[in-house]
């Protein structure tokens, strides 16, 4: 199996839970608020996985051969974030007059919990758009710093999860794992000659 096919297969596997949640959103008896939280948790899981793959590879060397899969994981995180946003819009429709969901969303856009979510989405947009070989060739040295926007995006997504989705304990646990693994980058591993 070539790398492109492997990436597509990985992406399909990572998006399968989101496809189920998307399907559930179309049912009339669905708890949209619950689905919004669930899709946010999946998006956070994939984003956290994408940002810890490099430090994990420093701790466990065999993983280094699989770092090329980060692109698929990162794109799955972005796609899950878009599903999360779509369900948020649908949930807001339930609280507003027809067409009034946009006004409700604008009213709460600058509250800390929602603002962190919008900012995380904005920070994820550029790395997602540049997650292709053509962008890598075009951006050259600027490509890697652009991809590192995923780190502050993850921090903001964790803040969003903690505040909006009452996931403080989960957000704190994920932050501890991600932060701890990021610290590994500052301690070079000792290789045997």
What's the SSE blueprint?
Layout: H1 3-25, H2 32-59, H3 70-93, H4 101-108, H5 112-129, H6 133-139, H7 143-147, H8 150-164, H9 168-183
Helix pairs in contact: 1-2, 1-3, 2-3, 2-8, 2-9, 3-4, 3-5, 5-8, 8-9
What this model shows, in words?
The protein has 193 residues and is mostly helical. It has one domain (3-186). It has nine helices and no strands. The protein has helices at residues 3-25, 32-59, 70-93, 101-108, 112-129, 133-139, 143-147, 150-164, 168-183. Helix 2 runs antiparallel to helix 8 (150-164), helix 3 (70-93) crosses helix 4 and helix 8 (150-164) runs antiparallel to helix 9 (168-183). The model has no long low-confidence stretch (mean pLDDT 88).
Count of runs of 4 or more consecutive helical residues: 9
What is the chains' assembly state?
single chain
| Alpha carbon gap, first and last residue | 33 Å
Q: Work out the strand percent.
A: under 5%
User: What is the β-strand count?
Assistant: 0
Q: What is the averaged pLDDT score?
A: 88
Structural domains: how many: 1
- Unreliable spans are none
Estimate percent helicity. over 70%
Helix vs. strand class: mainly alpha
Q: Rg to the nearest angstrom?
A: 18 Å
Order of helices and strands: HHHHHHHHH
> How would you sum up the global shape?
globular
In this structure, how is the largest beta sheet organized? none
